[in-house]
## 1
Amino acid sequence: MNLLGIDIGGTKMALSIGNELGDILVDQRFPTDPDNPQTTLDHAAGVVEDLLTRAGLTIDQIDAVGISSPGPMCSKRRMILETPNMKGWAQFKVGDFFEETFNRPTFMQNDANGAGLAEYLFGAQKGKDLVYLTMSTGIGAGIVINGEVLSGTNDLGGEVGHITLDLNGPQCGCGKTGCWEATCGGKNMADQIRAEIVSGKVQTAILDEAGGDPAKISMKEICAAVRAGDPYACGRWDVFIEKMAHAVGMLIQTLNPQAIVMGTIAIYDGDLFIPQMIERLPKYAWKGGMDVCTIEPSVLKNIGELSALAVALDGIRKREES
């Protein structure tokens, strides 16, 4: 089976041709124009032709196209509804473009759902009930239960980053207060720490790790300072771990999954918080749920490309079952 995957991001688009085993035959990335989807997609169509040539295939040999995109989006209408980093893409029918251009069955999901499907189809926890957590700029979830992605009534399922953990917590970009993402999302955490440093309220090695430039502070510098034992960084990290345990405990209580797989920060610095978080979970989840749930970093490489391929493969499966 040959699948065409299209992973749309705010800064880049990744296209790939792969198979049902998750093997990527050829791939290519190029910058996304956040204001002009037509220009970006026209370029993507040319890249697809190049990938087909490199793979020794024709478009008729592609069984399906899968699109992984930022949300909020609509999987049925196959469009991005709105996204702050890609304002020009709002309401643009991305799925229609590719289906009309290539005349192949085309399916679309948000990127977190796509990643959850990739973990279910190709990852270390393949075939299990699982939650994939994006742990990058923001926090989202791809939830796969009984082989089905939980996308919700209008594709808002899995927006776990906006579970409220503390009504008195920091303001979130979504407009609510005290969201999980507002406390533990990489960008929010870095922004809050940067503001405290600039105000002169704290002295911390985080700034040293950033070369003295507050603008360069990110989770990478925060984690480095934690590893160095900086008191301020370790204090902030302790709050991070506690909030992670709180939210993950809620997922275990609600979904009773076999696995929770984490991306990005967990892949690079999971040793700093996953074991400690698991130690704190009994405050937030029952033992029975914890005992059957594996919590680990993702082992998948090229998660964006694999997410799009997984969306295509899942779409074919659903079509055959209907």
Note: The domain at 127-297 is CATH 3.30.420.40 (Nucleotidyltransferase; domain 5).
## 2
Amino acid sequence: MKRITIKDIARELGIHHSTVSRALRGNAKINAATAEKVIKYASERGYLINRNALHLRGTASNIIGVVVPNIHHSFFSNFVSIITRLAYSSGYIVAVFQSEESMVREEEIIKSIIQQNIAGVLVSLSMETTTVSHLTQLDKYKIPLVCFDRVSPLLSKPAVVLDNRLALSRTVERLQVNGFSKIAYLSGIPSVHLFSERQEGYRQGVKAEGIQYENCVVMSNGFTVQQGYEATMQLFGEKDKPDALIFDSHLLAWGAIQYMRTGKKKLLDKMAFASFGGYPWLSYAVPNSVMIQQPEEKMAEASFRLLMEELANPGANEGQILKFDADLY
């Protein structure tokens, strides 16, 4: 028996295939009577059994692409997990792509997404991404794009981000209140918008708290345990040493802990560490610790909702940025 398609349903019911698609996806803008008629007809003819036949924009794709810089980072792995759950419950499947912090790899991924005619894309940019022409190519093929976490000001696309400036200024404030006044920050390259914002927040926090010590260390070669070890060793080779460290990655934090345990074990108990990711192990490894936790569930849900709205009504959220606050533990 030939598998029924959305176009078949549309032809039989005398309505447009986009109306059928939206009705099957539970779009609230579809008239309730029309939606009920579509769902009843599709169910009676076994359409719901074939989830892969969901048509979007007149194609047979019900695949959502998620592009992340590094799947090993807890934020990205958790984000993908949440998106996968949300997608399945809405009749979609998820294809995950990893750029490995490479702009060239990211460009290749976008080409592949276009070739595979994927329905829509969620993207967090690599550290190397400085231009966005490869991403704007998606417009040509009417593939909706929503950016999250690492975004570019060059793209006027819906985006879901953390309030990075506030997160860092609040972290500095927390450490200062806890009695630490020489706070160094190990961050990413400022050409990445997210890290530039965080560095601004760090400096704002230092200024607001009246702290005299300021030391922002830019990790130009990425985030690894070894990089954290070497950067911390360099900091403690300086005359004016920090009493607290903030890390953009739990890998950097772990490298710093390794250095402290081998060379400065007694000092470790007097230091304070604050880091993105790594929860809850950091609190076990360092007595004075602050976890900077992104609201992963909320950010993933908002990203998915924006993508669904873009699929149903292209351009509906152009330029909209949803900003969330970090939790400090």
Note: The chain is about 45% helix and 15% strand.
## 3
Amino acid sequence: MKGIFYGIGVGPGDPELMTLKAIRIIRECEIVAVAVSHPEFRSAVYEAKGETSAYPEILEACAAYQIALSAVPEICGKARLLLPMPMRKEKEILSRIHDSNAEMAAGYLRDGNSVAYLTLGDPSIYSTWLYLQSRLSGQGFDTRMIPGIPSFCAAAARLNTGLAENMEELHILPASYQIEEGLALPGTKVLMKAGRKMPDVKRAVARRGLQARMVENCGMETERVYQNVEEIPDAAGYFSLLIVKEGRT
């Protein structure tokens, strides 16, 4: 019998926000898959159960793995599949990497191993798991999503604010791309993945006279909260999320 390829949302950062189902499925899976964004990590690596990792610094830097480890300490003794997922935009290069990652995972699934692919937030929202899910499901493998609390819901809770009321619209926007049209939409705008584009994002928000609040590293030890666009640093980290509203905070 073939194994199941799970995309498991571990939530935004606080291990206590992981679901009971996510914890159970991680415990049941034979292999834990970890997405590695380090630019020098280019080939998938399998580390057998009980084997000391050859890349401890990579596991330490992987937020999703560390969140899951806090909630499910026994995963440190499971087999691990380290998969390169570089942050780059060249579609052909990324497609080849995703093809290779999917084929690597497929080999273990054919042998009957279920794989728990850990992803921040929820696997249905800007998740690298989706790239492999489409390939593996197309080959006939059983793929399943285990939902997690999305970062924008956790950030709204941290700010003690609602995202949408009554007939308000809610828009989720990738802020690393052109956002001018998105900011013109009515209702609340959630800006994700601003990263190096933060200075441009701040200027665009200010030009429209919108109110913006931001949570950086929500639920993590390094969490920071900013109550207006003027407070937000240009060098904010990758896990920074803005909640933008019209004329009020």
Note: The radius of gyration is 19 Å.
## 4
Amino acid sequence: MTQSATLVTGAAGFIGYHVCRRLILAGETVVGIDNLNDYYDPQLKLDRLAELQKLNGDFTFHKCDFADHEALDTALFEHGFDRIIHLGAQAGVRYSIENPRVYVQSNLVGHLNILELARHRQINHMVYASSSSVYGQNAKIPFSVADRVDRPVSLYAATKKSDELISESYAHLYRIPLTGLRFFTVYGPWGRPDMAPWLFTEAILNGDPIKVFNHGKMRRDFTYIDDIVDGLMAVLASPPADNGQIKAGGSESPHALYNIGNNQSEELGHFIATIEAACGRKAEKIMMDMQPGDVPATYADIDDINRDMGYRPATSIDSGIPAFVNWYRGYKGL
């Protein structure tokens, strides 16, 4: 067995890449797994991994589908680790409408497999990715972890809420310290090509039209990747105590839930204008109806994570979007 390490699932993904990078630069031993699926171009994932290898840190990567428990056990047999950051999942709201079985396999079966790994390895702390999508049709703004979240409008959201429930049962039964993070619209360099910052930037620079859903009557809590990683690192270092006290999210077990967002709900029009300014050209807009599974607004109440971890995001879209556009130009050689 090698020395203790942090296991990061979804290591070749957007958030996973940045988390691995932060850990490696801090001198930590990191074991990364990812199945490198083709939900979006796997070359981007391979390019992220290549960047991590350039750091010359203590980083080991295995291509592995964590929904296959035998493959997972085989890949990790020789590795010791006492913390897990479980970011791997089948992402995307709209794709879940077309391919529901993929979501159940990755987000439910896969999540259970990682919890079983945490149980049998007696992990000190497992931090896992939930999503702001669990709030569904919640009309109360901003969204609080104390709000009811039993009206999901997509299967993706339902799987993420299910992950929280399964985690609660494991924390109760096995006293495993678990923390779920409800991410709010994460963006930044090395971001996902299926999300609005990439789609809009690509279209505007190519002179193509962009689709503006719900006729522009949308608001999102856009959260810059560096702020996400800052919050995640603070949470990782502070596992919930098994002291019977009620945690953020309402659990009496060692299981906490936090929103992690920018605490600023931006109008879609302002967001587009910020991308236009960074690209140096105007967008041609095609107004569309709301898509199935989507919601008109997201807005994170971050009082709990601010109180417990001192988390306070520092990056507005006015600086974060230009940083993404500059990265995109460099990545695409524009």
Note: The chain has a mean pLDDT of 94.
